[in-house]
């Protein structure tokens, strides 16, 4: 395949462009790209067991994904996260990582990272480290193999744990993401203790009403305000200003010596400082995770080999970035706030 591998192209070097700043004065410096809608798990809060995935021609090719990400880098994106679906099940995805790493070499990009379920990490950790990936997020909700299988429907905990070992051995910093679920609250302290014992931060995420999964959201929803209050009965939590560029607010836990993040789209709206946008694997740009407005970037990308139309489309889209979202989970049977699944826009 024909992806540029190491050096920044002359077009990228020569063109200086305006940064992407929305009408609320927020600079877009963080791009999350879903490189596939497919996954080897079927987590109960994320997907239905039987999913219909997109036909291949609808997906951006790896070359197109590279072009798109590079256009954002030219416009001031400093942090790029590949996600999915499961990014490591996309065929040849390492070619994309290798090609994007040229922006790390040039200094245009500060961080190239991914969010993964960890199932394929044992295979790819060394390659990721070689591409300059220094920190990754691994999603893990429980250390109990049977519960893990039930939550992911198809997952094998031992593979994920081997993947985390491989990443840490390759020198990659691992942060755990765990979705706080009503049926899973008892697991949370053990997961935190285990992670902190291995030098990993943990972020807890409130379940968001995205897509039909065949499960009732109100049964799954566990407010992080409740989790925090219960953890505070067990441990000493101290608010700290630590930030990773994402929406998590952190505390340090005195007894474990580690950091714990809270991502609270429902109990605390975090939109005012939002620096992020998301692109799907079909090249649809969502200016907000929680709103339906979107911009098609695939058409301008495919319309011309030059990036001019693409940059115009980016300007138009960022101009429309909304102030925030308004998720609510308050009554049984409420339909999802948005019909698309989290695996479409990526976490
Ligand atoms: N497959 C990868 C993984 O699981 O890490 C990357 C994609 S996944 C959609 C990204 C993150 O979104 C995961 O941490 C997952 O737990 C979280 N997630 C999925 N559905 C969610 C939902 N409805 N509410 C909150 N978080 C969700
Ligand atoms: Fe797959 Fe990640 Fe969604 Fe789980 S959360 S089904 S691993 S995309």
Short description:
Its EC number is 4.1.99.22. The protein has 347 residues and is α/β, with parallel strands linked by helices.
Describe this structure in words.
- Helix 2 packs parallel to helix 3 (93-106) and helix 4 (121-130) runs parallel beside helix 6.
- Helices cover 32% and strands 17% of the residues.
- It is of the alpha/beta class.
- It has a 12-stranded mixed β-sheet.
- The protein starts with 9 loop residues before the first helix and ends with a helix.
- It is globular and about 55 Å long.
- The chain has 12 helices and 12 strands.
- A hairpin with a 7-residue loop joins strand 11 (284-286) and strand 12 (294-296).
- The chain has helices at 10-14, 62-74, 93-106, 121-130, 145-152, 157-169, 188-197, 217-220, 224-234, 298-303, 308-319, 342-345, and strands at residues 30-34, 79-83, 111-116, 135-139, 173-180, 201-206, 237-240, 249-253, 258-263, 276-279, 284-286, 294-296.
- The chain has a single domain (22-345), classed as TIM Barrel (Alpha-Beta Barrel), CATH 3.20.20.
- Residues 39, 45-46, 83-84, 86, 115-117, 139, 177, 179, 205, 207-208, 210, 342-343, 346-347 line the site of S-adenosylmethionine (SAM).
């Amino acid at each position: 395949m024909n992806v540029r591998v190491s050096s920044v192209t002359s077009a990228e070097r020569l063109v200086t462009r305006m940064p992407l700043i929305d009408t609320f004065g927020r600079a877009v410096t963080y791009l999350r790209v879903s490189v596939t809608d497919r996954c080897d798990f079927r987590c109960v809060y994320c997907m239905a067991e039987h999913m219909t995935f997109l036909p291949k021609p609808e997906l951006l090719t790896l070359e197109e994904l590279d072009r798109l990400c590079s256009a954002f880098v030219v416009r001031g994106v400093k942090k790029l996260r590949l996600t999915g679906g499961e990014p490591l099940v996309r065929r040849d995805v390492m070619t994309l990582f290798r090609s994007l790493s040229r922006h790390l070499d040039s200094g245009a990009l500060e961080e190239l990272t991914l969010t993964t379920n960890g199932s394929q990490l044992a295979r790819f950790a060394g390659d990721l480290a070689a591409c300059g990936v220094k920190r990754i997020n691994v999603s893990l909700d429980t250390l109990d193999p049977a519960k893990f299988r039930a939550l992911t429907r198809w997952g094998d905990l031992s593979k994920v744990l081997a993947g985390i070992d491989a990443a840490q051995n390759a020198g990659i910093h691992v942060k755990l993401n765990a979705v706080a679920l009503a049926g899973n609250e008892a697991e949370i302290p053990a997961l935190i203790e285990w992670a902190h014992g291995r030098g990993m931060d943990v972020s807890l995420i409130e379940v968001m009403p995205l897509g039909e999964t065949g499960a009732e959201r109100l049964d799954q929803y566990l407010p992080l305000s409740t989790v925090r209050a219960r953890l505070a009965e067990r441990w000493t939590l101290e608010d700290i200003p630590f930030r990773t560029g994402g929406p998590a607010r952190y505390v340090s836990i005195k007894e474990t010596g580690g950091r714990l993040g809270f991502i609270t789209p429902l109990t605390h709206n975090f939109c005012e400082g939002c620096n992020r946008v998301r692109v799907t694997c079909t090249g649809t740009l969502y200016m907000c995770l929680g709103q339906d407005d979107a911009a098609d970037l695939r058409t301008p990308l495919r319309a011309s080999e030059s990036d001019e139309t693409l940059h115009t489309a980016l300007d138009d889209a960022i101009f429309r970035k909304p102030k925030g979202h308004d998720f609510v989970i308050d009554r049984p049977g409420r339909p999802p706030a948005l019909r698309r699944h989290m695996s479409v826009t990526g976490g």
